[in-house]
Amino acid sequence: MKITYSLVAQEEYIEVMYYLADKFGEEKAIKFEEDFLSNLKQLQNFPSSFGSFYKTNKRKFMVNRNVTVIFQINEITETVEILNFWLNRSDPEVLLQHL
């Protein structure tokens, strides 16, 4: 499946990378990116293997204990769209309102 990114997800990814590099060092940002890319490989091959996000048609995977990626699958276009990079300490109700 082809993977695309919403504008919000693109911005959030950059924010997460800058935050990690600034607060914890470049090594943590690189580790985050490696973990994310590893999950993307599985997502491309088995997109339905990931759990649903609450009671929505969206799905999720955890990059690490701090960040979860929210995505949706379009079976017709055979596309997975990354919607959000969600900080797990944040209120999920806020995210649900934006989805």
Outline the secondary-structure elements.
Blueprint: E1 2-5, H1 7-24, H2 26-45, E2 59-62, E3 67-74, E4 79-87, H3 92-98
Parallel strand pairs: 1-4
Antiparallel strand pairs: 2-3, 3-4
Helix pairs in contact: 1-2
Structural class assignment: alpha+beta
Q: What portion of residues belong to β-strands? A: 25-35%
Average pLDDT reading: 88
Structure annotation, total helices:
3
Question: What's the architecture, going by CATH?
Answer: 2-Layer Sandwich
Summarize the amount of helix as a percent range. 40-55%
CATH-defined fold name: YaeB-like fold
Widest sheet: strand ordering: 1-4-3-2
- What is the CATH homology-level superfamily? RelE-like
Describe the main β-sheet briefly: 4 strands, mixed
The helix-strand sequence is EHHEEEH
Through-space gap between termini:
22 Å
Tags for this model:
99 residues, alpha+beta, YaeB-like fold, four-stranded mixed beta sheet, 3 helices, 4 strands, 25% strand, globular
3D structure, described in words:
- By secondary structure, the protein is an alpha+beta fold.
- It has one domain (2-98): 2-Layer Sandwich (YaeB-like fold), CATH 3.30.2310.20.
- The chain has 3 helices and 4 strands, in the order βααβββα.
- The protein has helices at 7-24, 26-45, 92-98; strands at residues 2-5, 59-62, 67-74, 79-87.
- It has a 4-stranded mixed sheet.
- β3 and β4 form a beta hairpin.
- The longest helix has 20 residues, at 26-45.
- The two termini are 22 Å apart.
- 20% of the residues are buried.
- The mean pLDDT is 88.
